Amino acid sequence: MFDKLVDRLVRSGNKTDVMKEGVSREAVEWAYRLLLGRDPESEAVIALQMEGNQNLAQLRNNFLGSPEFAPTLPPGVRIQLHGGEPPSVIESDGSPELLARLFEHVHRSWHQFGEEQPFWSVLTAPEYRDQPQDAAIDRFFASGKAEIERFQKTLARIGLGLDGRRTCLEYGCGLGRVTRHLAPHFERTTGVDISAAHLAKAKALAEAKGIGGIDWLHLRSLDQLADLPEVDVIYSLIVLQHNPPPVIERIIKTFARILRPGGIAYFQVPTYRVGYDFRLAEYLRNPLKPGMEMHVYPQDRIFRIFAQAGAVPVSIVEDGCTGIPRERSNTFVFKKD
């Protein structure tokens, strides 16, 4: 369906590489008609989609991953991989100096997001751009409660729960969207983020609602991972994917190390994408510009890291968190013996 949109735009005389640059009004209108079967509900929505999507590939992925599109698929139809895809080259080793450079790049990008687009950088729906309306902010934080409910249902399905677990660490807490709903279940919750701008807003927003029991921790360097406290529960969703694989690896190794015996690690990361490779020298050859990157870290390495720490996988599901076609994103639950 989306190919028809691209063909139409090309035939209309737009000779720009439409999959790389820009989203026009016509592209937005036809995305609604072809993918959702309706016209956009307002001029404001069209403007938000034009501003919120950098190219047609992003527009397509957002529509294909939207809750409104999913019910339009015939029963049993899913956009998925079949298992016979080619291997990827994903380098995750590097000198301390190169790793520090990678981390600083991510750190700088997300601090800028925290200052300029704090809500949209967490949930990339157009309604969260700039300063959202109060109703949108309420929906933003309500979505965090829904995430915790899904977490608890996942644990219940495998015979586990949060009772008796005293401490929790959320990695990539952002504005505390989920953190504020985690906190009531634990004696102490630590919200960790690399963006001081996000953390400052998270703390202020939580305090304004009278929410306590949270320690907000700014991670300024990869070396600080060594200082993270041991905890009973680790939680991290839609976070690791924004880091290059060498940084993802250091974070996951930290998860495995700081998880206490009997503890649960619940986290999400894309584990495969058709056409994705990561070669460190090639990545660093070009200037590192601030932006929201999407990366992948292989499933087998995650298993190996946790096995070496004495933890076993108790649940692995394909979650569709990224909405990117021909990508596999997994939510893992590991339990340490």
TrEMBL record:
Pfam families noted in UniProt: Methyltransf_25
Keywords, alphabetical: Methyltransferase, Transferase
Source species, domain of life: Bacteria
Entry annotated with the keyword RNA-binding: no
Domain Methyltransferase: 169-263
Biological process annotations from GO: methylation
Molecular function terms from GO: methyltransferase activity
Keyword Transferase attributed: yes
Protein name: Methyltransferase domain protein
Source organism per UniProt: Dokdonella koreensis DS-123
Highest classification ranks of the organism: Bacteria, Pseudomonadati, Pseudomonadota, Gammaproteobacteria, Lysobacterales
